[in-house]
Specification:
Layout (H helix, E strand, L loop, with lengths): L5 E5 L6 H14 L6 E5 L2 H11 L4 E5 L16 H6 L4 E4 L2 H6 L4 H13 L3 E6 L3 H5 L3 H12 L12 E4 L13 H18 L1 H6 L2 E4 L7 H5 L6 E4 L6 H10 L1
Parallel strand pairs: 1-2, 1-8, 2-3, 3-4, 4-5, 5-6, 6-7, 7-8
Helix pairs in contact: 1-2, 1-11, 5-7, 7-8
Length: 249
Amino acid sequence: MTRTPLIAGNWKMNKTTGEAEAFVRALLPRIAGHTCDVGLCAPFTALGPLVEETRGTGVAIYAQNMHEEPSGAFTGEVSAPMLTELDVSGVVLGHSERRELFCETDKALAKKVPVALAAGLEPILCVGETETEREAGDTQRKLRHQVQEGLHGVADERLAEVVIAYEPIWAIGTGLVATPEQAQEAIAFVRALVGDRSPEQAERVRILYGGSVKADNASELLGLPDVDGALVGGGSLEVESLATIVGAA
């Protein structure tokens, strides 16, 4: 089955609203006619303006996090209704930085993923192992737990509506990149985990690679049989770099 690649640029805590708007205006001509899906995961402050800048262009705007409750006493959080009111397309959930720095748990993600789907948002569920876990041979155990927990509340027939991003934590922002063999093995394993629930959905689900994806290594990674795109961090902060990665897809 042919799966449309997705290149999602995760800006993290970078770019003011003005900088984000200028970036998009420069990017759009560079990727005109792109045949893959393109998304920008922007800070909350830039989401509304970016939705307006990209309306009708085929570029989707994603939030970087959301709370599972629709409202309440959760200072500093945003809800699915707040995002859908802005016409945001989706949301990144469970990025390793959210897990490590802000104590986000698999239990919380098991609630967030189905809430995002129910709201009409496309979730990008991030999973991945640490260097210590890989060296101990615990990569598959870690991925099994994260994938099964994160998808627990998703009906079998909707599994392919969740994008899964495999990001080896030891490769995020370090300059290290999983070898093609490591990336393919891990992502094929994630696909098999979805296949345990539904073989049909496993063929349709998009699984991205993330972890120091750059213009000069994108083609090799994106050419792997089970890799359906990339979640790009630092490589998405410059127009030329992101445009080259989109071109590779």
